[in-house]
Amino acid sequence: MLRSSLIGVAFAAAFAFTVLWSARGRRTNERHTFAWLLVAATIAGLSLWRHGIDTLASAMGIYYAPSALFFLALSALMWVVYRLSLQVAEQRQQLKRLAQEVALLTSTEHERLARAPPRSDSVPAAARHDPHAA
Q: What residue spans carry the region label Disordered (predicted)?
């Protein structure tokens, strides 16, 4: 086994361990954890199967095999970034709806308080703020 294969496998193992560690601490989503573990497995697989890169490049019609690997890695990263941007857009919409609902509830509560008759047993405002009164 070549030294570069060992380095690739060690990197993939360290990356997979980091992903699992962050998933254990609930810092990543389950969907993202699976995708990143798939990336680590792909790195390890291509590190061990060196002729796989050549086979992949010839199947894609690319003469220089590392270019095919670079193309695939870049495509995978673009896919991950696209998924993350979709998730950010969805969360932004949820945040906007939540802010609108809070504004409506606050407005309704202010209107309800304005329409309510004053309570006869209410404590004067000055006494409410003074903890030593009463």
A: 109-134
